[in-house]
């Protein structure tokens, strides 16, 4: 069994994928747009401007992105413009303090730091933030042993 995270960016998926490429070296493995679907959405439910019941056109219907050893899935969801990731954080484990600081600073750009990176009793660097898309991140450095 495998559990994967699926993030709905509600209309900002392309922007988010570009951000994660730059911030974390993410690699997009698959990207499907609504315009590539074999059958168009019913006209009464589609809105190319992303304001209708179902998104259409160039919005992301489904994507798979690899960050390090992990694959995440993402889409524009229902394109509401209001992504909410309440009660969920993605944990990012770095092999070094330098990597933790690099990734933390990149993810914090335009976001909100909840806990700056600090040494703790369980690791040399630990911090939490919410990125510019509202995704919560917990960064920790892997300790030997």
Briefly say what this structure is:
With 145 residues, the chain is of the alpha/beta class.
CATH architecture type of the largest domain:
2-Layer Sandwich
- By DSSP (H or I, 4+ residues per run), the number of helices equals 2
Strand portion: 35-45%
Q: What structural class results from the helix and strand content?
A: alpha/beta
The coarse silhouette is: elongated
> What ranges have pLDDT less than 50 throughout 5 or more consecutive residues?
none
- Number of domain modules: 2
As a percent range, the share of helical residues equals 10-25%
Strand order of the largest sheet: 1-6-5-2
Topology pattern, helix = H, strand = E: EHEEEEEEHEEE
Task: Give short descriptive properties of this protein.
145 residues; alpha/beta; Signal recognition particle alu RNA binding heterodimer, srp9/1; 4-stranded mixed β-sheet; 17% helix; elongated
Account of the protein in words:
The chain has helices at residues 13-24, 97-108, and strands spanning 6-8, 27-33, 46-47, 54-55, 60-67, 70-75, 89-94, 112-118, 126-130, 136-141. The mean pLDDT is 91. It folds into two domains: 6-75, Signal recognition particle alu RNA binding heterodimer, srp9/1 (2-Layer Sandwich); 89-141, Signal recognition particle alu RNA binding heterodimer, srp9/1 (2-Layer Sandwich), CATH 3.30.720.110. Helix 1 runs antiparallel to helix 2 (97-108). The two termini are 27 Å apart. The strands form three sheets. A four-stranded mixed sheet has the order 1-6-5-2, with helices on one face. The protein is α/β, with parallel strands linked by helices and 145 residues long. Helices cover 17% and strands 36% of the residues.
């Amino acid at each position: 069994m495998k559990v994967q995270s699926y993030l709905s960016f509600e209309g900002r998926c392309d922007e988010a994928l570009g951000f994660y490429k730059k911030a974390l070296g993410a690699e997009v493995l698959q990207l499907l747009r609504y315009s590539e679907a074999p059958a168009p959405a019913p006209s009464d439910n589609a809105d190319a401007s992303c304001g209708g019941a179902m998104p259409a056109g160039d919005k992301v219907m489904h994507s798979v992105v690899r960050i390090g050893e992990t694959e995440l899935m993402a889409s524009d969801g229902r394109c509401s413009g209001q992504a909410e990731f309440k009660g969920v954080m993605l944990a990012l484990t770095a092999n070094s303090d330098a990597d933790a600081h690099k990734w933390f600073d990149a993810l914090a750009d335009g976001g909100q730091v909840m806990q700056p990176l600090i040494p703790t009793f369980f690791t040399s660097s630990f911090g939490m933030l919410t990125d510019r898309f509202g995704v919560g991140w917990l960064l920790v450095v892997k300790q030997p042993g």
